[in-house]
Dihydrolipoyl dehydrogenase (Duganella aceris), 476 residues
Amino acid sequence: MSKQFDVVVIGAGPGGYIAAIRAAQLGFSVACVDAWENEKGGPAPGGTCTNVGCIPSKALLQSSEHYEHAGHAFKDHGIDVSGLSLNLPQMLKRKEGVVKQNNDGILYLFKKNKVTFFHGRAAFAGAATAEGYPLTITGPGADSISGKHIIVATGSNARALPGAPFDEKLILSNTGALAADAVPKKLGVIGAGVIGLEMGSVWRRLGSEVTVLEGLPVFLGAVDEQVAKEALKQFTKQGLSINLGCKISKVTPGKNDVTVEYENSKGEATTAVFDRLIVSIGRTPNTDGLAADKAGLALDERGFVAVDDHCKTNLPNVWAIGDVVRGPMLAHKAEEEGVAVAETIAGQHGHTNFNTIPWVIYTSPEIAWVGRTEQQLKADGVAYKAGSFPFLANGRARALGDTTGFVKFLADAVTDEILGVHIIGPMASELISEAVVAMEFKASAEDIARICHAHPSLSEATKEAALAIDKRTLNF
């Protein structure tokens, strides 16, 4: 007889482990199944985010930024560094240590909240029975279990170029980009999205000559145009060679390099040879191996699990969250959906507001935004007011030695309700939270302008940008 649970979560990424913990807090018997393993074959919960995504990339971004500061910016602070050298193995070791801390932390949280963890891959074994949906677990923790409610949180995989599969040695996904054992002299990056820009920034700081090839004719098309324009200027100034409107025709791996043939924005046939190539052209839902057909779980034409606004699938008591369903592929979006589903199962009113999900690109300068962009408001015919404030006029930014960028507010022209906030500059990832809170409470720009902000702080730029809506900044 299989082990029975009220809720079984398939996947222990940000959405899955959070859903499992919240369901357990609500009094359900909960199991979570996850197949990720560490180099010793042990469990490594946390999904792509913890193992080969958000967490290790931030660790390398921080380390590489320290290295760049030591080589350049420290001198301005009166700190002379001689004999600076890169210890890449130690940098990677630190990154792995950070990952392990997060893996272990999730296992601790499971134990604390009495979530039963199974190390393996779960698949549907058939349609629902009186005991719930039967699941088969293969791998180290092979078993048979069933759940009255199933939450699918299997995440996503990197999308490869046709005819150029990832080997993680020459052609790299995010996984290989985080683990290169040497700094490539020439690094190619296909795709100027979040992963491409972050990984390109890491290896540029460490000494690579980085060329970014982007298929779209515009840079960061989802970002506010004013912010994107500033970002392109800063990244180019740093040394990233960003090429827009490129059409990749062929990628050929050699013994020690990769040849990329493409058509540039002028329609000219171009060939480039790189020591390593990072391909970052999006991600695909991870539904292979789920045996969705055995339970009758509906997938859409792209392989995503089909869900409604409340993450319900076509099957009773089967839910899906995170990268495996519609919406932005963001860890915090998955977490919010996980909590919402657990609370909905408990009869509460779980909800995820897509309009106030923040976005962040952890480059330097950081880029963060929430709500609509100026181009979206124009396209929708919304009457709005805009106000911005540069970090150049912010005392804390001057003291930090990082005055790049600005904060920009967009507010309804009649009601003054905040419609969008866009930041490029130091600690944008932290500053955006104030805007998220404000928008959740339907705040006006005047509300932020009237709130006292600590001095000196970067957050004063947020207040000043709100003041700029009425053209009454105090420090610019």
Observations:
- The first strand starts at residue 3 and ends at 10.
- The chain has three domains: 3-157+284-352, 171-281, 356-467.
- The CA atoms of residues 14 and 335 lie 6 Å apart.
- The chain has a mean pLDDT of 97.
